[in-house]
Each structure stands twice: as structure tokens, then as C-alpha cells.
């Protein structure tokens, strides 16, 4: 599995005979945060599922989902711990995964297995300002940008397609680039997205009551 590392650690050892891809994603001449960067293997390769029991976490705290964008590999179990002092009711109507986690309180957690590729938009039936996305991909190589950048390391030599996805991108503007990774080499990739007005919301007076 590729390892996502901070840009500052690009020179660190990533294992013998493994390459890296350094990705920079921008939007409107500014670094694009919270973009999912996905590195896909050969075009004819079948989607790879994770080992049974592999988990990721989408936290609920201060009436927000954290992180805003969570890329996961096909078959991952995502846990939804509630770190607030009141109850949440998590749901999604997305075709890739429709589910509902009915009211549960602080200190409790529920989990969902994501078994289909695609974008899952999350909401809370109690606090309508809560919004986040899970991006399910059929590859073990992915990361989320910080400061518009990310490095994916420990990649076997070969040809890959690198693409970026953001929940606010305009339809038809998804950017991708094909690159060849060599053993112990690093490839630099610059991708540009066109974003709509941000849909990320923060808690306001309308939902200040605890439930």
C-alpha cells in the first residue's frame, strides 16, 4: 500500500525499489485543500479490496464531521465515533452507499462497510450544517491534500493515472495525468481544479441546541 507522507519528508526512505509521486493541486491559482488524490494502477486492473477488518474513522465533534473529505479503499469499515456531548443521527442518500445511523450519544460509535466505489455525502438529521464526504476508490494508493500538496510513497515501478477529486469541483473538470514511476524515483504532478462556491458549512445559531 502506498504511504501518504508530508511534503517535507519527501527525502525520507520509502522502502527498497519503490518510487514516489509528489502531487500539487490548485484551484483559482491557490492551493486546494481537502482534495482527494488517487493513484490508479494499470487501466485493465480490477478494483482491489482491502484486507478484512481494515478501518478508517470519520469523527463527529463540535457539530462537524472530521475530516471533511475521507478517501478510503473499497471494502473499508468506517467508524463514526461521536465526540460531542449530545446525540447525532448520521445518514447518506448517495447511490454508492445509502445508510442511516440513528440517534446515538457522546462516547458511542457506529460503523459502516463501504463496498461500492463512488462519492458518499454525509449529513446529520439533527444538525443540518454538518456535511462531509467519503470517497471510495478501487486502489490502495490515495491521500488528501494539505496546503494543496501531498506525496504518495512506496509505489512499485509502473505506469499510473493520478487524479484529483474535490466535492466542490465543477462537473467535467476532474483533472488526471498519466505518469511513469521508476524504482527509487520521484515524479512531480501538478493538477488544477475548477471549484464552485464551497458547500462546506459550519455550525450556526440555527442548530445551537444540544440533542
Protein architecture, described:
The protein is mainly β and 211 residues long. It has no helices and 19 strands. The strands form 5 sheets. Strands 1, 2, 3, 16 and 19 form a 5-stranded mixed sheet that branches. β13 and β14 (131-137) form a beta hairpin. The protein is globular and about 50 Å long.
The amount of beta strand, in percent, is over 45%
Oligomer: single chain
Envelope shape: globular
What is the count of DSSP helices, taking H or I runs of 4+ residues?
A: 0
What is the level 1 CATH name of the largest domain?
A: Mainly Beta
Largest sheet: 5 strands, mixed
Supply the CATH superfamily name of the largest domain.
Immunoglobulins
Task: Please tell me how large the radius of gyration is.
Answer: 18 Å
> In the CATH classification, which architecture of the largest domain applies?
Sandwich
N-to-C span: 41 Å
**Overall average pLDDT:** 86
Question: Structural class of the helix and strand makeup?
Answer: mainly beta
Order of helices and strands: EEEEEEEEEEEEEEEEEEE
- Spans of at least 5 consecutive residues whose pLDDT stays below 50 are 1-15, 204-211
The number of distinct β-strands equals: 19
Structurally, the number of domains stands at 2
Helix content: under 10%
CATH topology group of the largest domain: Immunoglobulin-like
Amino acid at each position: 500500500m502506498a504511504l501518504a507522507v508530508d511534503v517535507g519528508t519527501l527525502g525520507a526512505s520509502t522502502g527498497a525499489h519503490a518510487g514516489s509521486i509528489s502531487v500539487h493541486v490548485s484551484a483559482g491559482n491557490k492551493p486546494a485543500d481537502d482534495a482527494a488524490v488517487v493513484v490508479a494502477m494499470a487501466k485493465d486492473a480490477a478494483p482491489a479490496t482491502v484486507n478484512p477488518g481494515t478501518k478508517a474513522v470519520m469523527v463527529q465533534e463540535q457539530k462537524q464531521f472530521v475530516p471533511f473529505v475521507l478517501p478510503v479503499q473499497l471494502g473499508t469499515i468506517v467508524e463514526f465515533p461521536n465526540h460531542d456531548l449530545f446525540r447525532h443521527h448520521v445518514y447518506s442518500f448517495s447511490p454508492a452507499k445509502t445508510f442511516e445511523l440513528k440517534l446515538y450519544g457522546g462516547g458511542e460509535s457506529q460503523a459502516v462497510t463501504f463496498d461500492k466505489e463512488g462519492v458518499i455525502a454525509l449529513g446529520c438529521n439533527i444538525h443540518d450544517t454538518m456535511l462531509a464526504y467519503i470517497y471510495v476508490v478501487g486502489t490502495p494508493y490515495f491521500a488528501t491534500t494539505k496546503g494543496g500538496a501531498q506525496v504518495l510513497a512506496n509505489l512499485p515501478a509502473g505506469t499510473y493515472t493520478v487524479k484529483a477529486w474535490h466535492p466542490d469541483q465543477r462537473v467535467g473538470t476532474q483533472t488526471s495525468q498519466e505518469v511513469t514511476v521508476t524504482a527509487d524515483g520521484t515524479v512531480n504532478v501538478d493538477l488544477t481544479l475548477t471549484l464552485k462556491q464551497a458547500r462546506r458549512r459550519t455550525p450556526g445559531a440555527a442548530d445551537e441546541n444540544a440533542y
